[in-house]
Task: structure prediction
Amino acid sequence: MSFAAALGLTVVGTLIPGTGFLAAGRRKLGLAVLGVLLLLAGGMTFLALSRQREVLHWFVQPDTLMLIGALLPILGLAWVLVIVGTYRSLRPTRATPLQRIGGSAVVTLLALVVLTPLAVGGRYAQVQKGVVENVFAAPESKSATRPKNATRTDPWAGQDRVNILLLGGDGGKGRFGIRPDSLQVASIDTHTGNTVLFSLPRNLEKVPFPAGSALANAYPGGVFNGPGDRLEWMINAIYEDVPAQNPGLIDSDNPGADATKMAVGTALGLKLDYYVLINLKGFQQLINALGGITVNINTRVAIGGATDEGIPPKGWLQPGPNQHLDGYHALWFARGRYGADDYQRMERQRCTMKAIIDQADPAKVLTRYEAIAESSKSVVFTDIPGALLPAFVDLSMKVKEANVTSIAFTNKVIRSSNPDYELIQAMVIRAVKASTNHGTKAATPKPRASTPATPKPAPTKVATPGTPPPTTPAPAADSLDDACAYQPAG
Result:
């Protein structure tokens, strides 16, 4: 056999392990290696075509990730041994020194080609394991509001909807002294993925706590009205002020988040299950890791500046369709307040969230995975248990393909200083009912008797059970596609 033929068959034996041994006359070894290859290829094809959910579940389970992280490099080393063995079996005994050097170089290159992606895959598995363990709640974590009977087999604890509080603020793990810039609730149908986003203004006042709760007893009339000026009366002060004013009242790893969950849930008439805090200081890093986001800008948005203090902005994001923003500019699109009110910011924050959901496609996430994973550790804080992540993976896949509507409780709808909570709760009931009924009949089964799909107003001072909704029709939820579309001036 010529030296060129030996190199060519080594390349073929690299692409289809075992064939090189067969060409060299090592029939038993060649068939064994080829058999292993066929088993692996068949198994991967089967998983890719019919077990996609199970594969995705592997990537949110630490034990499985640790195993994957160990097996991929081992597989790579085994493949390298096959390459080296194939070349040694095929190499002519009379090869010249120059041919031997060239052959060794080719074998080394082939080994790097197959070993590098498997080694990177093993590293990604270890990074993902760190994300799951650092970001999501451990079994021993404490929460006063998280569902207590949620399990792997019944992740939604018999509920037809799961309600998640989404907070945006400059905070971190163990840091409670923040005031959320953004308060939104995602109410998700666990059967269809249909979602309603409710956005509350951060300056909402007279916020009720659940009747009969320790928080309701701690505040006169069961309503949060902090001491001092009106900045201490607003809903975004609860996260910081409640733990400071009543230490030990809430048995939780994050009493500020639990207090805020109870207040927001009571205001909306929903039982909130989990919270996710997005650290806006790390948000910029996350957007950059995703490669930026594309949004429609309908009115110019200030970069920096302070209206009350007369500090002018450093610059502006100009109106226009399909504006691609890096992390820095995306942060200001979501947060910019100079010359704008909280309600305009709420609208922009909803569109920022939609852009992330729509544009975080698998190919982009994979190519930038390590940067995204590392940024997530300092961006996201939550009481969602890591054990329930497989169920949330399934739910997120439904949400991506489902109907998403939203209601922003702006000054066009309510007065933040004296809100009509009966109206708010009527709007929530209507929006959730419409979301539940949207889609096929098979996708929206009848609600269980113990967990109605349509929420009832929470028992509070401002809205008691059985209170009929206001006679004025509540506005319906709007489509995020419409709300975030480009609207040319004039």
